[in-house]
Amino acid sequence: MNYEDVLNLSRPLMGKVCKSCRICDGKVCSNQIPGPGAKGSGTVAIENYNAWKKYRLNMDTLVENKKVDTTFEIFGQTFDLPVFAGPVGAVNNHYGDCFNDVSYNEILIKGCKENGILGFTGDGINPNIMVESCRIIKENKGMGIPTIKPWNQEEYMKKLQYALDSNSIAIAMDIDASGLPFLKNANAGRKTVRELKAIIDQTPVPFIVKGIMSVKGALKAKEAGAYAIVVSNHGGRVLDGTPATAEVLEEIVQAVNGTMKVLVDGGIRNGQDVFKALALGADGVLICRPFVNMIYGAREEGIQVFVNRLKEELIDTMEMCGANCLKEITRDMIR
């Protein structure tokens, strides 16, 4: 079974919005919610995808011909690829009702672990989502990252306890989720540096701040004590007019200067995009929507198909551009 086969299998199981497009560029689903689209025009998701295509790869095969190594170290663990499966919530509302958040995460976390990468789980107003996500992570020896919404500190502390009980190797907060419509009237929202620091100080494992889109924001996350950030505009779903993640990544990497791990998401769809992100200075990437299609189409086997495809594409790109390990991927390999 290949990637196209899994996409074909997923289409009858998706809802009315996601079409399991061969090219997942945000054009078909654009501004449709419920669905994977945006609360605005949906153009930012499209720009996320397009921005990676503006970079070109510089081929250089006059290098030592040895086996390429794609292994990636973070959180004291070694993974096969510098790739994470991003968090997604309310899959039955946004994609199709053959899965819910619990059954989706059961497959996601197990499938990612078995294929040498790591999955993030989502969060929602229903507290059972976090309870079950953390149970699943614990059953997989802590190999998953629960993503907690930007609740107030009291609510965060309740969910933190579930996350700690899961033995997860890190915990994330998608701070940009404060722009989601369903959180507007909940006990959640924007955070000051002081408020974020109070949360991070109570979190004894590496803390990831997802939703950073500026140097100023990155330096605030650093001041609050974040271990890592994810350069992300929430898949282009929360605010029209923002830049694409690829457009701001390099300046953010330069500003933090190695003091935090920098991950990036938004429109990354293949191994070439992963290579470009690393060349711009990212430590790793998150990919979300394609994992949904893979799980709907073939469950754990779909994850395996997609991860294998990403690995083959990344290896091929590294071989053709002169890098034999991730640390050898440099800025001059793209233009």
TrEMBL record:
<feature type="binding site">
    <location>
        <position position="237"/>
    </location>
    <ligand>
        <name>glyoxylate</name>
    </ligand>
</feature>
<keyword id="KW-0560">Oxidoreductase</keyword>
<keyword id="KW-0288">FMN</keyword>
<protein>
    <recommendedName>
        <fullName>L-lactate oxidase</fullName>
    </recommendedName>
</protein>
<dbReference type="GO" id="GO:0010181">
    <property type="term" value="F:FMN binding"/>
</dbReference>
<dbReference type="InterPro" id="IPR037396">
    <property type="entry name" value="FMN_HAD"/>
</dbReference>
<feature type="binding site">
    <location>
        <position position="234"/>
    </location>
    <ligand>
        <name>glyoxylate</name>
    </ligand>
</feature>
<feature type="binding site">
    <location>
        <position position="232"/>
    </location>
    <ligand>
        <name>FMN</name>
    </ligand>
</feature>
<comment type="similarity">
    <text>Belongs to the FMN-dependent alpha-hydroxy acid dehydrogenase family.</text>
</comment>
<dbReference type="GO" id="GO:0016491">
    <property type="term" value="F:oxidoreductase activity"/>
</dbReference>
<dbReference type="Pfam" id="PF01070">
    <property type="entry name" value="FMN_dh"/>
</dbReference>
<feature type="domain" description="FMN hydroxy acid dehydrogenase">
    <location>
        <begin position="37"/>
        <end position="335"/>
    </location>
</feature>
<dbReference type="InterPro" id="IPR013785">
    <property type="entry name" value="Aldolase_TIM"/>
</dbReference>
<feature type="binding site">
    <location>
        <begin position="265"/>
        <end position="269"/>
    </location>
    <ligand>
        <name>FMN</name>
    </ligand>
</feature>
<dbReference type="InterPro" id="IPR012133">
    <property type="entry name" value="Alpha-hydoxy_acid_DH_FMN"/>
</dbReference>
<feature type="active site" description="Proton acceptor">
    <location>
        <position position="234"/>
    </location>
</feature>
<keyword id="KW-0285">Flavoprotein</keyword>
<feature type="binding site">
    <location>
        <position position="210"/>
    </location>
    <ligand>
        <name>FMN</name>
    </ligand>
</feature>
<dbReference type="InterPro" id="IPR000262">
    <property type="entry name" value="FMN-dep_DH"/>
</dbReference>
